[in-house]
Amino acid sequence: MKPRLSFLLIISLFLFLTAQSQETYEKGWGIVNLERHQVKFGTGFNYELGLFKNVTIGTGFGPSLVSYSEGYTTGLAWHTQLKYYTNLNSRKIKGKNISGNSGDYIAAQRSVFWGPLQLSTDLRPPKDFAVAFYGMVYGVQRTNKKGFQTNVEMGGGIIRGDGAPNGYGGLLSVSFGWLATKPKNKKPKIKWQN
């Protein structure tokens, strides 16, 4: 038992010292590079809430396309996501804009497509059908200095149909609009080291 306890103590001490040696921009486990709240209006509506460092949850309503072996449907969909931003710190170090959560992300996503809100489909379902996408997506989100945001995401997963067949397939979503919440000024501070 003592060797195991000693090993855990050494590992804990190493992790503590490593964490203390790194420069932190905010205290605690806060959302260092993320916006706390973010609301976007444009091709749809989107709300994003920063939870932890590089992690947000969000919901939105906007145009999307889902395609699978049984067919496709495109139109308005309701999305819910758990996003993990993969490159905010490296973008900040390189001097790139990270305001408005400008970065690349991977997300666990659920999107629901309702029949009356679809622009085009070849599924031949009843008029009140619904198709739900459950899967992983990769997305690119960018916000300029004036608050205009673009977001493109694509991925694959399981498609469950209510009045339409089930299957596996892909999702593509493109949205753009203006942030109703003012993004933080995240201009990087360049530090020269000698």
What would you say this structure looks like, in words?
- This protein is mainly beta and 194 residues long.
- It contains two helices and eight strands, in the order αββββαββββ.
- Strands 1, 2, 3, 4, 5, 6, 7 and 8 form an eight-stranded antiparallel β-sheet that branches.
Brief sketch in words of this structure:
The protein has 194 residues and is mainly beta. It contains two helices and eight strands; from the N terminus they run αββββαββββ. The chain has a single domain, classed as Porin.
Helix content: 10-25%
CATH hierarchy class name? Mainly Beta
Beginning-to-end CA distance, first to last residue: 46 Å
* CATH fold-level assignment: Porin
Number of helices: 2
Low-confidence stretches: 17-28
Mean pLDDT: 82
Number of domains: 1
Residue share in β-strands: over 45%
Number of strands: 8
Topology (SSEs and partners):
Layout: H1 2-21, E1 37-42, E2 45-52, E3 55-68, E4 71-85, H2 88-93, E5 103-121, E6 130-143, E7 148-162, E8 167-179
Antiparallel strand pairs: 1-2, 1-8, 2-3, 3-4, 3-8, 4-5, 5-6, 6-7, 7-8
Jot down its keywords.
mainly beta; Porin; eight-stranded antiparallel beta sheet; 2 helices
